[in-house]
Amino acid sequence: MPERGKVLVNGQALSGDTDPKKRKIGLVPQDLALYEELTARDNLRFFGGLYDLSGAALDAAMSSVLTLVGLADRARDRVKTFSGGMKRRLNLAAGLLHDPDILLLDEPTVGVDPQSRNAIFDNLEELKRRGKALLYTTHYMEEVERLADRIVIIDNGKVVANDTLSGLYAGAAPGGATSLESVFLTLTGRRLRD
Amino acid sequence: MALTALLAMVRKDLRLFFSDRRAVIVAFAVPIFIGAFIGSITGGNTREGRPRVNVAIADTDNSAVSQAIVDAARGDENLNLTVTTEADARDRVEKGAIAVGAIIPKGFGDGSIRALRQQSGTRPELELLYDPSRTIEVGLVQGVLTQHIMQAITRAVGVPRPQLPFGVSTAAVTARNAPYAGYNSYAHSFAGMGIQFLLFSALNLGIEMLVERERGLWSRLRSAPISRFTIIGGKIASITMISLMTLLVSFGFAMIMFKVRIAGSLLGFFAVAIACSMMAAGFGLLIAALGNSPKTARGVSTLASLVMVMLGGAWVPTFVFPKWMQQVTLVVPVRWAVDGLDATTWRGLGLSSALMPTLVLLAFAAVFTAIALVRFRWEEA
What ranges in chain B are assigned the alpha helix state H? Predict the structure, then answer.
């Protein structure tokens, strides 16, 4: 993956740590970036505070995201008592708390059970319907097929494809491909990666 | 904006601290336990009387002179006397139960009177058995018993008691007009242990920042629209508060249970305590900036803390150090904290005595924080 570059939001570069444009971005890291010893509410209260949310606005935002990810009834429980799938859902909720327009999701379904994975996908589809832009990185091709409007395939730090799903199918082989995985393997080869 | 974020960070750190039962016990209960232990074995509260040397005496002579010696020793304010047999006295010294055992041999009274009258011949000997680890006490006991023996013998032979051509007066000196002043070893031990464990609390919070980095929380923090000053300011505020709580809880307990008093300047005491807590916050940040991983950072920083508290006089007062070491340890921040707290508690000194320790501790806080800011890895590798 590229390690350097410039972040543009609506064509404008971010100018420093406190640039208000950062409020438009929500981050869902691959790691479970949560405080396990705190309750779900206390985690969200902290992350909300970083975006200047407080009082009734913060309470409303917390209720909204907890309901969305199906954790409203576990809000007062410590995160360390949650299953892996619940932690993933709370990780997503923390990135949504300040209602960002753009959501960066770094492999948000790694290591979760099928039910939680399906629930996370339902959440993401709902966010798409609400008009959020999702930038989603994953190694699971079926997730891309279900969710993505546009697909960028990066191999060894280089962009090897940038198209819609149907465009990739059509361009991969003369007769058209039957799955994204076959397109991916055609483009990146079958050599094992380190 | 910055204030909301800063308050959120402080509240989060406080909640994390109190949610960790082990951290709370280490911060509050352990310094109290160790402070009480060290305070009790290093003298206790001398306002309640000077400490006495435990001595066992065996009178195998049973003469009028030996009885007079035992009676005088029993009434001596320097000794805590037990009258027993020779075998028991020896046994107690061997086991370390007492510092000194004194054996008055058979014929001691008559023999010493004869030696005094003739000024020649064989002199009977008082036998002192002592614990080799307590050589200071044996000198004191020898001096005290020699005085009582001379009085008993001169009284027995009817010669006038020799008078010293001078007198000696003693006075414990602490600040004037400080009604609660006076050495209380608990004041020193609780200051020392409070400082040691506030450093441990700061160390843990510094390591917590490394854990946050490992868990991906740092990326989330950096993606929020908050400045680096807010992030560092939040950490300094929370570490300072937790460190200060550690010290104040420790001192509060010592005040209630061991009659430790802030006999000097209350303002000075708080100035030193707050400056010390800020120094600890800088130390915590330094660990977060220089540490590669929580595991390696914990080992190195624990060692650094222990060296600082040892050289700073937190375990034993610096006046027992060699002179050169007393000078060298002035570069250790803990030394200034201990001296400042000693000055404002049992020494009963005023605000001016706290000024230099406070300024030096604030300077250490500034240097630690500045190095941490320069070395801090703001972006992920």
Answer: 2-19, 21-24, 30-41, 64-74, 86-94, 108-118, 135-157, 185-214, 217-223, 228-258, 266-290, 294-311, 323-328, 333-344, 351-375
Q: Tens digits of per-residue pLDDT, B249-298?
A: 999 999 999 989 898 899 999 999 999 999 999 999 999 999 888 888 98
Ordered structural domains, chain B, with CATH: 2-44+184-375 (no CATH), 51-157 (3.40.1710.10)
CATH code of A40's domain = 3.40.50.300
Select the residue of B20, B226, B228 nearest A37 (Cβ to Cβ): B20
pLDDT > 70 fraction of chain B, expressed in percent and rounded: 91
On whether residue A30 sits in a domain, the answer given is yes
Closest by alpha carbon to B309, among B343, B334, B280?
A: B334
Query: A38 and B19 in contact by Cβ < 8 A?
Result: yes
Quick one: pLDDT at residue B330?
93
Q: How many domains does chain A have?
A: 1
Residue-level pLDDT at B326:
87
Contact between chains at B9 and A52 (C-beta distance less than 8 A): no
Residue B26's pLDDT is 84
Domain presence at residue A167 = no
Name B143's Cβ contacts closer than 8 Å, sequence gap at least 6: none
Question: Is the pLDDT reported for residue B171 higher than 80?
Answer: no
Q: Which domain holds residue A69?
A: 8-149
Contacts of A137 (CB under 8 A, 6+ apart): A105, A106, A107
CB-nearest partner of A49 from B4, B20, B228: B4
Are the Cβ atoms of B16 and A23 closer than 8 angstroms? no
A50 is a domain residue: yes
Considering only CB atoms, which chain B residues are within 8 Å of A25?
A: 223
Is residue A16, in this structure, part of any structural domain at all? yes
Q: How far is B22 from chain A (nearest CA, A)?
A: 13
Give pLDDT tens digits for B237-256: 999 999 999 999 999 999 99
Residue B176 has pLDDT above 60, yes or no: no
CB distance A40 to A108 below 8 Å: no
Residues of chain A short of pLDDT 50, as ranges, are none
